[in-house]
Design goal:
Blueprint lengths: L1 H7 L6 H27 E5 L14 E5 L11 E5 L10 E8 L4 E5 L2 E4 L2 E2 L13 E5 L4 E5 L9 H4 L2 E2 L3 E10 L6
Antiparallel strand pairs: 1-2, 2-11, 3-4, 3-11, 4-9, 5-6, 5-8, 6-7, 9-10
């Protein structure tokens, strides 16, 4: 009799479970692909000098997102490849974007001027005792400065930087933990 009951028992339909399985697999795959893409475009860098102090200090560790086609904007902090003639401390540096293609950049009386108007900078800066004569940037040139203006080896010393020298914008400081953000 027990054999009869087993033969007469109908299995529960699996259609509902199968219908739920495929969207879950698809969404899970999409999440894994997104995280993998983000992880491959995220690079870690250590700040070697005080040229970006007080914003970034030596030993700070930052995450940089590398994206093809991303264009630097004024005020952003970027990791960049130094021009070949200025690679005294290494091949990469971290600087703030100040001047954009086509703009005229000048430093006079401790102020940065863009197209003759003073640049309003809301981040903390070190003093600037040097001058830079007015220079109009080419179609693919950028002017970058460190936040520690007198202590930074940057565009005031080696001139504009070509657009293909930019690696990616700094998106997060993850070390030290007390200053993460």
């Amino acid at each position: 009799m027990s054999e009869m009951n087993q033969d007469n028992v109908k299995p529960k339909p699996r259609r509902r479970r199968e219908w739920l399985l495929w969207p879950t697999v698809f969404i899970g795959g999409l999440v894994i692909w997104s995280l993998g893409s983000f992880a491959t475009s995220l690079r870690a860098y250590s700040i070697p000098t005080g040229s970006m102090a007080p914003t970034l200090k030596p030993g700070d560790r930052v995450g940089v997102v590398t994206q093809a086609g991303k264009v630097p904007r004024r005020g952003e902090i970027w990791v960049l490849h130094l021009p070949a003639a200025s690679r005294l401390l290494g091949s990469d540096a971290v600087k703030r974007v100040i001047g954009l293609p086509g703009e005229t950049v000048e430093v006079r009386a401790g102020r940065v001027l863009i197209n003759g108007s003073p640049l309003v900078e809301s981040y903390p800066l070190g003093p600037m005792t040097y001058t830079v004569e007015p220079r109009t940037l080419g179609p693919n040139e950028y002017f970058v400065l460190g936040d520690s203006r007198d202590g930074s080896f940057d565009s005031h010393a080696w001139g504009p930087l070509p657009g293909d020298h930019f690696v990616g914008p700094v998106k997060v400081r993850y070390w030290p933990l007390g200053r993460a953000g």
